[in-house]
Amino acid sequence: MFKVREESLQHLEIAEYLIKNIRSGTFGVNEKIPSENELCRQFQVNRHTVRQAIARMTNLGWVTPLQGKGCYVNSLTRPIQYVLSSKTRFSENMENNGLKHKSKLLDWKKERPTEEERVNLELSEDEMVYRLEILRYVDEKPISITTTVMPDKEVPFLEAYLNEFKSLYSILLEHYQFRPIRFRSTFQASLPMLRDSELLEIPESIPIVQIESVMNHPSGSPIEYSVARIRGDMHKCLVEF
């Protein structure tokens, strides 16, 4: 039993060895990593184990295999530091980092809230909400998808301002004269659903950071409930108190 378990971990050992050497610069960007034969000899394993390691490296975005030529090291995106505080805004975060950014409204609906949304927004069962799905980009790369839910009574006729969508908070400031304040956020690491992986342009094996948040109106009542799914390979979070 122990031997089987040990063998099942060998491809992870090889992948970690390769990642360590890429990070240290031993294998540079656009350089070829050791061949399957070389790795088989070095680690005393079969070709299947080496291919598992390379598949893992490929899925994680570290290398790109070229048929008949081997695997080459990719240029990896440096994680973007995202400051999370009571008044966090995506656009301000990116501007403070000197990064080009944009937001795209994928879809919106006006309908009854789910039970979870109703509880978090402290709504009655007969109230309506706006539900927006927003895809955000940094330097032309998709970084996050956020589903945002707001009570209809707090943002009446919101659809009138969505035709040329650029920023939700800009709409709120300009047309409703308020800016949501973060009340609480819950973090969870997970793997993306199929649609999210396609929109974020990542394999399903790349982890995401899911942030579930409740924002309050300046008066103190809940005004926004959101669930953001952020690429784990492009994001690191700084929480300010």
UniProtKB/TrEMBL annotation:
Residues 8-76 form the HTH gntR-type domain. Keywords: DNA-binding, Transcription, Transcription regulation. It comes from the Bacteria. This is GntR family transcriptional regulator.
